[in-house]
Amino acid sequence: MANRISLNPTSYHGAGAISEVVTEINNNGFKKAFVASDPDLVKFGVTAKVTDLLDKAGIPFELYSNIKPNPTIENVQTGVEAFKKSGADCIVAIGGGSSMDTSKAIGIIITNPEFEDVRSLEGVAPTKNPCVPIIAVPTTAGTAAEVTINYVITDVEKERKFVCVDTHDMPIVAIVDPEMMSSMPKGLTAATGMDALTHAIEGYTTKAAWEMTDMFHLEAIRLISENLRDAVDNKQSGREGMALGQYIAGMGFSNVGLGIDHAMAHTLSAHYDTPHGVACAMFLPISMEFNREYTGERLREVARAMGVKGVDEMSQDEYRDAAIAAVKKLSEDVGIPKTLDKIKEEDLDQLATDALNDACYPGNPREATKEQVIEMFRMLMV
Fold first, then answer.
1. Helix, strand, coil shares of the chain as percentages rounded to 5?
2. For 10-181, CATH number?
3. pLDDT on residue 69
4. Which run of H or E residues covers position 255?
5. How confident is the model at residue 132 (pLDDT cuts 50, 70, 90)?
6. Phi, psi of 324 (to 5 degrees)
7. pLDDT digits (tens, 9 = 90+) for 138-162
8. d(CA 187, CA 333)
9. Cα radius of gyration rounded to whole Å, the chain
10. From CA 237, how far away is CA 243, in angstroms rounded?
């Protein structure tokens, strides 16, 4: 079977890269931008770092900000209507995963209107046309949504999140400027950074992993392990390292999938609105422990990439323990909680069912029973 890699046609990296938004709009001949960004980024002037450039260049735009964390079907559908009225011919997505995911869904439905119910996009939908061209400007270092073919939408009515996988939603340009991430508070920096680490470790141990994605994931693990603590302390070098590390992780996992950590994390977010990165981080050592006997020598390389010394002299059990311990230490150092008091015993059966039905679960290297998944959720209970 052939291995496929889908990436952005163009990406820019480094401080000051946002100036290339204007370059790309002009070079592509776009006439008007639909700027999708969440309300807090608008309120605190982060979105304006880009829209001011559009104003200065005389590029008209329409701002859409009905986007919440864990974006909903309603956020997408009102966005579709707003795009139709705007007369725009491209989308500039500014934000974290929520803005990016909403933009992808809007862009896909505009060019594939038969999917306007949104729910029918779950899984690998048979869309026929590339989405509206998206220029993606991340403001968090975690989701890597700017370089992935995935997006996640929340079905509020059914209390579940669903994953959509579609090569037609890849942004045509990613602009990864660490200066756009400098306003992230400590907690968000930690949570999104641990989401990126989860992407890299799950992507490296997933069933579909292969040599090219291994290269991306191991380098991402190294960069994240070296830079997340400094990024949480808002050091410029840490911000730069995390901006690159999370993007490289996205280059990998987008093409091979994830595993049970993300399946359970999506479920927590859907039921309790838990921030996605926090949910991923809490489950990471738990899922690594669950999968350890199904990872061969891979956790040795995870430990090595995380800076653990002497892994070649360790037994298999020792280096697996060392990798899990390194993840726990990083989580602790950046302030990730270990428990979630919202989880109720009576919810566990539904949580486990939803996790096992999540599109990320099939990539997990080990099959899980509902009882095993319930036990993993129970490990987060106070």
1. 60, 10, 30
2. 3.40.50.1970
3. 87
4. helix 236-256
5. very high
6. -65, -40
7. 999 999 999 999 999 999 998 888 9
8. 12
9. 20
10. 10
Asked if 257 contacts 206 with a C-beta cutoff of 8 angstroms, the reply is yes
Q: Where are the domains of the chain?
A: 10-181, 186-378
Closest CA to 74 of 29, 117, 138: 117
CB burial of residue 113 (10 Å; 0-12, 13-18, 19+): exposed
d(CA 311, CA 317): 11
Strands 10-13 and 90-95, by their bridges, are: unpaired
Q: H or E element: which one contains 154? A: strand 150-155
Question: In whole angstroms, what is the distance from residue 374 CA to residue 349 CA?
Answer: 7
Answer whether 136's CB lies under 8 Å from 146's CB.
yes
Q: How far apart are CA 145 and CA 338, in angstroms?
A: 26
Arithmetic mean of pLDDT, 35-59? 97
Strand 160-165 versus strand 150-155 pairing type: antiparallel
From CA 88, how far away is CA 36, in angstroms rounded?
12
CA-CA distance, 305 to 322, in Å (whole number)? 11
pLDDT digits (tens, 9 = 90+) for 313-371: 999 999 999 999 999 999 999 999 999 999 999 999 999 999 999 999 999 999 999 99
CA distance 182 to 112: 36
Q: Do 186-378 and 10-181 have the same topology in CATH?
A: no
Query: What percent of the chain lies above the pLDDT cut of 90?
Result: 96
Looking at 1.10.260.40, 1.20.1090.10, 1.10.10.10, 3.40.190.10, the CATH number of the domain 186-378 comes to 1.20.1090.10
Rounded CA gap, 13 and 25, in Å?
Answer: 17
Sequence-distant (6+) residues with CB within 8 A of 201 are 217, 221, 284, 288, 302, 327
- The closest alpha carbon to 288, from 251, 226, 248, 330, belongs to 330
Which residue type occupies 160?
R
